[in-house]
Design brief:
single chain, mainly alpha, two-stranded parallel ribbon, about 45% helix
Amino acid sequence: MTKYVLENSFTVHDVLAMLERQSGLKVRRLRSDNGSEFVNDAMNTFCRRNGIIHETTIPYTPEQNGIAEQAITVFFKMVRSMLYTANVSLRYWGEAFSYAVYIRSLSATTGLDGVVPYEAWTGHKPDVSHL
């Protein structure tokens, strides 16, 4: 079977397996853009064999993926704010981005009633005393 390589040598199979094991749920639907890394015969075969419905967006329409686009916008604003406020080099962009994702996972969101994303994923209240 062809492997679908993502950043840091993770395959789609690796990521889906990790998500399924950590959540205790099975992936039923995969949404992606029309990039050739996701739209090909090997990916179609993988999804079909695993009972996964693969949905794609219409090319050049980021509006169809509004939640993800909004999250990306928020993360980039957080990163720019952190780097500017700390007056540090852009070479720390990756660390700032990781921290932005970490902060958002501990922050309230309207999509989850009364819990933060970390708690929804793990089932445990986060300890934020270190912040």
